[in-house]
Fold Glycosyltransferase family 4 protein.
Amino acid sequence: MKLAIVHERLTEVAGSEHVVAELSREWPDAPVTIPIVDQRVSASFSPQVRTGPLSSAYRMVGYRSYAPLLPLVPAWLRRRDFGSADAVIVSHHAFSVAAVNAAAAIPTIVYVHSPARWAWDKKMRREEVASLPGRLALDALSGLAIRTELTAAPKITTIVANSAAVAQRIRRHWNRESQVVHPPVNVAFYTPDAAETREDYFLLAGRLVGYKRPDVAIRAAAKAGVKLVIAGDGRDAARCRKLAAGGDITFVGRVSNEELRSLYRRAKAMLMPGEEDFGITPVEAMACGTPVIALGVGGALDSVVDGVTGSFVAEAGDDEMVSEFAEKFATFDSHSFDPVAIRTHAEQFSPEAFRRNMAEVVTQTLATRRDG
């Protein structure tokens, strides 16, 4: 079977790039079309990456910002030729679904990390940028993203969501049904280690940006008088440090995978105070046998089992959520959770399971298309 793979941009390697990497492992001969590529990243990604002039423009500006190039992505993808491919798999965030229009009669499988959440959610856009010019530009880009999605959505053969929450958004925004295949997590690397014992701190890991609600974790830790370790960086880092002043809160910045694994293993619990599309870091923590305290919405409902692998906090107003997280912190007993059961649960999110599930989706899509 000949497949082609499409992804939106390769400027870093995060959750969606791990999805594409596993797709490439399952179909190693499939070309991977990506409009915007940082060659420094692609060197260690996949030998099958195909790109074009947008990447050249990105390189010419010293890889400083890909944002001005995003409006050009849909038009570039619509002109791609997928030749004799039996099917095209699209990894979609906002604009890559435009490739569906180029596929014509070729079956398309779109793996949706989320319909462009920032485009559909005005409140989220307001948290992304503070300046009026920035907001106007993002509003215009949002309009393009929504039009791109709505034009392509009726033409997609098979839609795959990375969580039940994303499947609900697809239904709401695109008026299409989808099946859920959870993204891959490196559970072979993130493992328990008896030599690293539990310590008296909670862990928040990931980008420090508004929608992930690091402010809730910081305020709750200060209110409960507990120790919080924050691993990661982002545009809200300065605001978070200011908010944390006076509390027992340690910022360790960006850390290596090995350092992050050690932090997971030693933490009382991993925190997820914001709504995620799926959420890779909680699964990484659970793979290390560490329980998770999460806001009980979004992707957390797919990955965390309340009372078995962690505990949920109900969504509410900011002050109430801070109080609820603070109460969890003050009363949380990590010894009441079985690390073996937590680890066993996390293993279902392995790369092998992801590849197997996606292979079944492709096989079913082609079989249905032939029978039709």
Remarks:
- The longest strand covers residues 87-92.
- The chain is about 45% helix and 15% strand.
- The first helix runs from residue 15 to 26.
- The CA atoms of residues 57 and 69 lie 8 Å apart.
